[in-house]
Amino acid sequence: xxxxxxxxxALSLLIxxxxxxxxxxxxxxxxxxxIQIDGSSTVAPLTQAxxxxxxxxxxxxxxxxxxxxxxxxxxxxxxxxxxxxxxxxHITPSELREAQSRGVEFIELPIALDGITFAVHKDNTWVDAxxxxxxxxxxxxxxxxxxxxxxREDWPNRKIDLYAPGIASGTFDFFKEATFPEGGSVRLGDVxxxxxxxxxxxxxxxxxxxxxxxxxxxxxxxxxxLRAVPIxxxxxxxxxxxxxxxxxxxxxxxRPLFLYINAARADREDIDAFVLYYIDxxxxxxETVGYAPIPDDLLSIVRERFATxxxxxxxxxxxxxPVRASLRSVYTR
Length: 333
Fold this sequence. Notes:
Radius of gyration: 20 Å
Strand content: 15-25%
CATH superfamily of the largest domain: Periplasmic binding protein-like II
Number of strands: 14
């Protein structure tokens, strides 16, 4: 693991004092500054909700949140352009090399659990569940699946209109790895893609024959116009929910979400105060947004990683290869 402890598009949102109440949170007085955050559209609702609460208790800190996708966020973060980066996947070996070449050290914090949710229009009554093989057949480059009836004979003989996150999205990267673990390219030519999940939601909500995917928070916020499709597992069809994501039942599409902090700036008073507030409040806020909180013992590890300024990633081994393991095993070994 490449970790060590040290001693001590783009939609721009300026988070000021919004309407979220800081329930059960201590006031943070006298901390001023400006924090630049970019990255994942999946993590953005969580960070925005926490930043909104924080701005209410400490309006002297200005938090600028941009959304350019996990990959787009890492492009800026790895050259030192941003202070924090939201990520719906861990940093890649190539991104790590870029950060190292620029002298950018970072602190990696898992902050919640998500499930990639496959959604259809609310009036789609025929898709009762999909297997991973169905999803593979639909989204494989060169796929011959065009109509619903290509999947099941009794489904409508109408074209499936596909929606997916863009290639700069961490959700796209995780989907590709989970769906094609042996390798393979994802169908893109006739798929509507965007790093903005709101656009995907609107596209699916307005099209009875649409199928797409994104983080569960976007489904949770739009359940009146969308329906989540259960995924067939060895134990039968499993719908995405906070409970099935936390338990690991919603496989293989459950995943951790991350916050990355520029280590050289972690001791800045405004960043230190905000990240501590983030850690202290993330589990309670995660469920309100639609994500599953990480277990308390792992949250203690997260708190310790930031307190000790532990730098590097636990997801790339000493040979430079990605680690494929559970969240718990990665951070407790």
